[in-house]
């Protein structure tokens, strides 16, 4: 069992660069607003074309520093084997119960990469089980009030968009901290992530730009949630004080 501290927001990714790509702007914004954020990579990304697990771990910690989060941990599931077995759900339940977040972020449930799909499914299961008293009863139950899904290589119409324009340089720097994945160099092979006009990097930035345009700002990150957002103060949406 890995040990983590209590935080406000728990962001979960299948691989060490997922959170930065899908929700790096929101994470940076939360940190700037004084919330504590923990990042959990389900795997060390050891199956990636470029970079060793050691290099990737170093890069992940570098990106965590750029974002200013409280902690970043790896759950240690095998890359390409994020299966929905009890052992994996329990390991994630233990992290959720220790960290006791108000919000959990995880990938959207449709994606070209099956690990992202499975990371979403595993998180949905663990988010639910974490609130069940009789599931691994050595830790107190906890169910986060919010579970928001961020987009990676596939997206749908977002339910809401967060203006991340003023944090966008931080998001870019956090992504580029993963040099073996997004950098260029003689030792780095060209992949879907780092090369070409249809590369993952260009998908992320053009999508953030498009979502930003929907709300009249430069960059926006889109999210969806199966739990309806409760608006306590409708005037806050109108930019006036309630
Ligand atoms: Zn990934």
Automatic annotation (TrEMBL):
It comes from the Bacteria. GO terms for molecular function: deacetylase activity; hydrolase activity, acting on carbon-nitrogen (but not peptide) bonds, in linear amides. InterPro entries: Bacillithiol_biosynth_BshB1, GlcNAc_PI_deacetylase-related, LmbE-like_dom_sf. One of its GO terms (biological process) is bacillithiol biosynthetic process. It holds the Pfam family PIG-L. This is LmbE family protein. It comes from Desulforamulus reducens (strain ATCC BAA-1160 / DSM 100696 / MI-1) (Desulfotomaculum reducens). The lineage of its organism: Bacteria, Bacillati, Bacillota, Clostridia, Eubacteriales.
